[in-house]
Design a protein that fits this description.
By secondary structure, the chain is mainly α. The protein is built from 6 helices and no strands. The protein has 2 domains: 30 residues, no CATH class; 116 residues, no CATH class.
Length: 156
Amino acid sequence: MEKQAQQGQPFAPRRERGLDSFRRSMRRGLRRPRAKARSPLLMTLKGVLVAASVTVLGIALFALLLNWWNAGDRAITAINQVVKFVSILAGVACAMGGEDAGPLRGAAVGLLYMALGIVCYCLLMGARVQLTGYLADLGMGLAAGGLFGMILSAKK
């Protein structure tokens, strides 16, 4: 090492790794910012809000399309179901957030999304919420969310 210092190099690299090296690396590790742990509840609520916003955009675009296209009741019902499925897919994808959350979080997003839609519909129409009348919608949201959650978690 003395030869390297005499040849004009400002320092000689240390070959041995001792306790000082371990302490320096530990201090460096403490200085690195840690990734925030994402709360499953907040991620689920974020997914529900994303699904609701996709629904609002989809229905608005569909309403503009209906100005030029005379669709029957069956076509309107089918397109509404497609908008719901796409919204649930977007919400579940957002709720997963790169994690391996699985079908449980997807099912929760689907169920909460459909429950929010039912409550909004009843508020806008002035109707009472009758759970038995909307069990099929809640089941569809639960099943679709769970299925999309399984697909997205298996894809990763």
